[in-house]
Structure formats: C-alpha cells, structure tokens
Amino acid sequence: MIDVLVAQRGKGTLRAFNEAGVLAAADVHVALRLAGLGAEPDEDVQLATALAVRAVRSGSVCLDLTRLRDVGADENSRIDPATLPWPDDDAVLAALRRSPLTTGSPTGPLRPLRLVDTDSGPLLYLDRYFRQEQTVRRGLDARARDYPDVDEGLLVQRLDELFRDPADASRPSSAPDRQRVAAALAATHWTTVVAGGPGTGKTHTVARILALLTSLHGPGVRIGLAAPTGKAAARLQESVRDQAGLLGLAPDVTAMTLHRMLGWQRGRTRFRYHAGNHLPFDAIVVDETSMVSLTMMSCLLEAVRPDTRLVLVGDPDQLTSVDAGAVLADLVARPVTGTPNPVFVNVAARDLAAADDPDEAAFGAGERERLRGSVVRLSRGRRFGGGIARLAVAVRDGDDDEAMRILRSGVPEVSFHAPGDLDALRDDVVRSADEVTAAAVAGDAHTALARFETHRLLCAHRDGPYGVQHWARQATEWIGVSSGRRPDPDRWYPGQPLMVTANDHDLRIYNGDTGVVVRRGDDALVAAFVRGKDPFLLHPSHLSAVQTVYAMTIHRSQGSQYDTVSVVLPDETSSLLTRELLYTAITRARRRVRIIGTEDAVRAAVGRQVLRASGLRRTILTES
Ligand SMILES: Nc1ncnc2c1ncn2[C@@H]1O[C@H](COP(=O)(O)OP(=O)(O)OP(=O)(O)O)[C@@H](O)[C@H]1O
C-alpha cells in the first residue's frame, strides 16, 4: 500500500509530488535519508534522488535527466503530473553536479548517486545500478575484444550438415538462413545474442548450436543451459532433449534456472559463482533473456569465464523483467564495440550476400552492423497462422492502423470483440473446462493437461473490472451455470486448474507453473503438472503456494503458449496497457487470438511503449 502513504517527513516539493501520487512514501524516505547522510539540503537534488528511486521501482535502471517530466501519470497518480511544481531542468542538473551525493560527502565516503554524461544527455543513477551496468558494459566489451579459435573447414562442414533444406534434406538450406548465421556467430564469438519472436526457431537453433560446439570441441565440452524461470528452463530442456537423438547430443542434457546455475544459497546474499569463482562451463546458453534483470545479468557476466561462450536468446519485444532493466532489448540496440571474427565473415559470406528469399529476408544494412556486434535476429515465423504473425508485427512496429485493419479483417486466426460481446469467450471457457474436467474425472492426467492448454483467458490487471480476479469469478460462474455444479472453493476438485505462486526448489515446482487436479484410480486427488513426456503428480496438499486459475495476467503467461488466447484489455487510460503487453499477449496464441476491448484501448496500447531508461544503449562521455 505504498502508493497511498504520504511520507510524514516530506516537505515542499517532495511532499507535493508525494501527495500527487507521483512519488511513493518509500521514494521520499530514501531521498531524505540519503540527503541527511550526505548533508544535502537542496530540494532539487532531493527531488531528483526520489525520482531516481522511483525510476528503479518502475523498471528503469536510471533517471533520464532530459526527460524529467516524462514520469507520466500512473495508476497511483491523483493529479496530472504536468501541473506539479517542476523545477527548472538546468537548475536540477547544476545542483546535482555540485551535490555531495554525486561528488562524495565531506562527512564520509558516502556517494550514493552517479551523474553520468552520455552522448544523449545526462543520466542519474543510484550507485548500485551504475556499478551493475558497468559490470555488464565492461564484461561485454572485454569479451568482444577477441574471439575463439575455430577450425573453419570443420565449421563449414557442420553448418551444412545441421541446417538442411526443409523441402529436400539431402542438401543444405538455401541462403539466407538466419538460423545458420546465428550458429556461425555463436561458434566464432564469445558472446552472441539470438533475438527472435515466438516460433522463429530459437530453440531449434539452440539445439544446433550445442551440436555444433560439441563437434568443434569434442563430447567433453561442458554446456550450461539456463532460463530465468523454472518453467522456461523445463521447456528449454524438453525441447533440446527432443532433438538430442537427431543431433547427437547427450540425451540427459539438463537446463536449470539462472539462480540455480549461479549457485543460489539459502540465507546467503551472494551466489556461489562470481568473479573470483567462475562457472565451470565451456558454453552457456540462456533462454528467455528478455526476463533477465540488470542485476542478474551483471551477476552472470561476472561469473562467466572469459573463454566461455555465452549465447543469450530471447524476444526483445516482449515484456521485460519485473526488476529493473530491459537488458536484452538494450543489448540488441547498443552501439557495436568489437570486431567480427574473420572466420565468421568467411563462413557467413553466402548468407550475407544472398538476396531476399520467398521465406527469409536478406540482411539489411542495420542488421549487418548488428552482426558485427554478434547480434542476429531470426525473423521467419514457423509456427503461427499468418494473421497472428501479421498482427504481432503491426503491434511491435507501432502501426495501430494496420493492427486495427487486421483485427477487423475477419481472418480466421484473429477476432476483435466489444467489451460486452462475450458469447464466444464464454463458449471457450466452458468448453475447455468441460474437457479438462472430463479427463480429470477419468484419471487421464495427460489429456487433462493437454486440454488445459487449449484456451487461456488473459488480463492486464489483477484487480478491478478488467482484472484477473473479476474474470476468474465470471468464468467460474459460466462454468457453474453450464455444468450445474458449483465447486466448493475450499476443497480440491477434479478439473481444478492450478497455478503455483512460489518456487519450491525441493519439489522442483516453480512460480508460474500450471497444472490440473486429477482423480487417481484409488479415488484420491493428485495435482498434475507437465514435466517432459509424463505428467508429474503430487498430492495437492504438498503445494504450499497455489491458486485456482481460470484467468491469469499477461505477465504470468510469459514463456507459455496456448491454442486460443482471449485477451481482456483494460480501458485506454490504464498505464499497464502498453505495446509490449499487447505483443506478449498476442504471441501467446498458437492458433487463434481473441481481443476483447475497445478500439481506443488497442490504439492506446500500440502507441504506448515501455520506456526503461538505461545507459547500455549509449556511449558514456564522463561520469562523476
Ligand atoms: N529450420 C527449421 N526447419 C524446420 N522446422 C523448424 C525450423 N526452425 C524451427 N522449426 C520448427 O518450428 C517450430 C518453432 O520452433 P522453436 O520452438 O524452435 O521456436 P522458438 O523461437 O524457440 O519458439 P518460442 O518463442 O515459443 O520459444 C518448432 O516446431 C520447430 O521444430
């Protein structure tokens, strides 16, 4: 309830911003505490400090001092922030330049803020985040200074074997093949970023990268596979194992959460692996990197040996991590530092020179520049029907007219419904619940879990008329009316859809995992979760943190896909309604996406991009 609190000690400008809901009480408290410790009476500095704390709270790594007033109204704002008593930008900057909080306190070593001049203006950091960003920046730059030794002949041969023409497996795929380029980059550079939307073959490519590295360095090559969440790690492991036989990879290849790979230790603040104790791998692949925060990325880069290949995979257009940073998007957009390995230039020459193919676009000038920084984007969607892919691209590119045109075009994969037009949604909710329940009652966990993936109802908010709670109640009511049964909310029942809300490392059940309650042969109820080929079963009472999930937030759905996705959009004033949110929701759908909301809400979402300030995309000129 931080939002409604007003800091008792705040005065003047801070108090006005706090009362307006722009600053939370916690922002004010931190700013006043730092000002007290650093003997800084200047109100402008105190306001900038509080805004820097707020910036981190809302996902930025720093405060962009050229856009102070862009803090924007959010759910907590009670008045239009533009009407607040904003100080003059130049005065704030001048005060920060001479402040003991940025230059060092005369009363001690305290220097909690960093003022950094960049090619696009000054940024204000809380010291901790500046240090983390520097770790990432310097780590990446150092890793780009040289490259691994690779046998070019063997590399060409293996690339040809691994990337085959889908229509005629007896020959290599035609150029340009971006997946082959991604694998060539990963073999020839210490750090590679493989970006791509859903279904563009990221996991397919990862499996081939692992096979390639195994050929180049022998079967003893030590590979670490990780993802930021347990669910994503389980999915990665499953996909790679599916292809292991075909590609000659070890059948027991395992993936783990990044926390686990880094050696999270109960009760300790530090990971087991760090700059003084490097991770014992020759190659590390991280999937779903868009969900990795700046803090985790800096821990990872510190812990990676300089001669370990690091491959970062993910979709930079998706929602970013809950914590501060949008590292993957920053890495894709950051200025290129290193020089490419000449072996790569030779090996990829055919793909780089190729013209557009009916299936694959040629590399443009901007992309060639990115390749120099070992960043490649996979672009050919291999899973969606055309309508979903075109809608996702229109949203990603900020083209609201095109998004509306597709939504209203009547293509079978996409439909658009006014807020009260709920018949089709109700039918899908009731049908999928009936199918899940029938399988669960019959004790068929496999089918129950499969049917549970056929439809998902997604919301932006948790609370309120557009929130998960409201829509879960609505879904329960529809199911109750249709089936004539009203489940007792305090008892487990067959067909009950579950979502885990906290990690349990011992049970290997993770926050965000979804499952279904199923009746076993002896009539006992078990909770079933997807784990590889066979469902993982356990008594529901072993689950310490679990919810019934007839609707879920779009944030929670990240990393999963469903046959049909229904998205309830909030009204256009909701600050949660952003391009990244809508893109993430649409791309959760494998076959069909249904958007429920107004045209204004769609246009507002497409028009509002999450702006997470960070210095990674900029060149630093000076830092105080
Ligand atoms: N080059 C290819 N030839 C044939 N099939 C492919 C190729 N690349 C990918 N696929 C197939 O396309 C589908 C999507 O690929 P994959 O799962 O690797 O995509 P992804 O980008 O990892 O998706 P997600 O974002 O869901 O993780 C899979 O069924 C995969 O087998």
From TrEMBL:
SUPFAM superfamilies reported in the protein's UniProt record: P-loop containing nucleoside triphosphate hydrolases
Catalytic activity: ATP + H2O = ADP + phosphate + H(+)
Enzyme class: isomerase
Protein residues bound to ATP: 196-203
EC number: 5.6.2.3
Signal peptide as annotated in the record: none
Keywords, ordered alphabetically: ATP-binding, DNA damage, DNA repair, DNA-binding, Exonuclease, Helicase, Hydrolase, Isomerase, Nuclease, Nucleotide-binding
Origin: domain of life: Bacteria
Entry keyword annotation includes Hydrolase: yes
NCBIfam families for this protein: recD (TIGR01447)
Family per record: Belongs to the RecD family.
Function: A helicase/nuclease that prepares dsDNA breaks (DSB) for recombinational DNA repair. Binds to DSBs and unwinds DNA via a highly rapid and processive ATP-dependent bidirectional helicase activity. Unwinds dsDNA until it encounters a Chi (crossover hotspot instigator) sequence from the 3' direction. Cuts ssDNA a few nucleotides 3' to the Chi site. The properties and activities of the enzyme are changed at Chi. The Chi-altered holoenzyme produces a long 3'-ssDNA overhang and facilitates RecA-binding to the ssDNA for homologous DNA recombination and repair.
Assembly and oligomerization: Heterotrimer of RecB, RecC and RecD. All subunits contribute to DNA-binding.
Protein name listed in UniProt: RecBCD enzyme subunit RecD
Natural source organism: Rhodococcus zopfii
